[in-house]
Amino acid sequence: MAENAETQFGIQRIYVKDISFELPLGAEVFGKAWKPAIQQELATQTSGLPDDRYEVVLTVTLTGKLEEQPAFVVEVQQAGVFLLRGFTDEQRRQIVGTTCPNILFPYAREMIDNLMVRGTLPPLMLPPINFDGLFQQALAQQTAQAEGTAH
Fold first, then answer.
1. How far is CA 6 from CA 3, 85, 88, in A?
2. Sign of the C-alpha dihedral, residues 25, 27, 29, 31?
3. Contact 24, 71 (CB under 8 A)
4. Which domains, from first to last, does the chain contain?
5. For helices 100-118 and 131-150, angle between their N-to-C axes, nearest 10 degrees
6. pLDDT for 146
7. Could you tell me which residues come within 8 angstroms of residue 87 by beta carbon, excluding any fewer than 6 positions away?
8. Are 147 and 53 spatial neighbours (Cβ–Cβ below 8 Å)?
9. One pLDDT digit (tens) per residue for the chain, 151 residues
10. Which of 49, 77, 82, 137 fits as disulfide partner to 53, beta carbons 3.0 to 4.6 Å?
């Protein structure tokens, strides 16, 4: 990642920024066969801070339906403060778009499973996510859109 000795990357803090757990069906959910259809949404947001630091927030939202009824909604905003010094803009965009979410995701996954268990539901055991692939897709999509508007 870093090409010279003047670049620095560091994790300064990892924390939960916001969490939400909803059980719209209430106790009715416990009488249903547990085979939820799960929809997953991911988003990241980056904010600049003083002294070459950046807050990166990974938002993971899971919505589960049983028999077409919303059974649960879990949302976790897992955040971190990262030091990125000496990188080019392009390198910095890639780091906050891939490396930082890769660091944050296991914490978000653990929090989601914890919330599910506290709601007396089975943990979801989310599989790993390829943030590098998602970043490359987003870049390709931006390039295609830019070329489409240039014609």
1. 9, 8, 11
2. negative
3. yes
4. 8-150 (3.10.420.10)
5. 120
6. 78
7. 2, 7, 9, 95
8. no
9. 545 569 999 999 999 999 999 999 999 999 988 999 999 999 999 999 999 999 999 999 999 999 889 999 999 999 999 999 999 999 999 999 999 999 999 999 999 999 999 999 999 989 989 999 988 888 888 888 877 776 5
10. 49
Specify whether the CB–CB gap between 75 and 61 falls below 8 A.
yes
Burial class (CB in 10 A: 0-12, 13-18, 19+), 42: middle
Place of tokens 């897709």: 137
What is the total residue count of the chain? 151
Alpha-carbon span 58 to 56, nearest angstrom: 7
Residues with Cβ within 8 Å of residue 16, at least 6 apart in sequence: 76, 77, 78, 79, 107, 111
Backbone φ, ψ for residue 76 (5° rounding): -130, 130
Beta carbons of 116 and 90 less than 8 angstroms apart: no
Residues 6+ apart with CB under 8 A from 18: 75, 76, 77
